[in-house]
Write a structure and sequence with these properties.
136 residues, mainly alpha, 85% helix
């Protein structure tokens, strides 16, 4: 049981590090486009100001969520030593955080983004866990 908890924690922290790290890299590569979009989004959240989302960046976020969730599920399974419970619990945790993020930014981005982003998290974490047994 302890290994499952450690797997979930490792997967969650891995997800966070990869997510924020990739956003930092994308902002450094494209400060005028990606970075400006992220800064405008942050400002809109903090100041309740208008925001115009860029569809391409929203799609990048969806792809990024899929990749990062897959890796996090793999890490959770690897640390837990099993590929079912830890990725499943991690997936539900990521979904809960994703739904919280959607609630905070509901009015700022289109509904399709919230639905796709949230829908990706759980199944990709589970698939990442399955990858662990495929590599044995």
């Amino acid at each position: 049981m302890l290994r499952i908890v450690l797997g979930v924690v490792a997967g969650f922290f891995g997800w966070a590090i990869l997510w924020f790290g990739s956003e930092t890299v994308l902002t450094a590569i494209s400060p005028g486009w990606f970075g400006a979009h992220q800064a405008a989004f942050q400002s809109a959240i903090e100041n309740d100001s208008p925001f115009t989302p860029d569809t391409a960046i929203l799609l990048i976020h969806c792809v990024l969520a899929a990749i990062v969730s897959l890796i996090a599920g793999f890490v959770a399974a690897l640390v837990a030593g099993e590929n079912k419970r830890a990725p499943l619990i991690l997936g539900f945790l990521l979904l809960a955080i994703g739904l919280l993020k959607a609630a905070m930014s509901w009015q700022l981005v289109p509904v399709w983004y919230h639905v796709i982003f949230a829908a990706i998290l759980l199944p990709m974490a589970i698939e990442g866990g399955k990858m662990r047994s495929a590599l044995k």
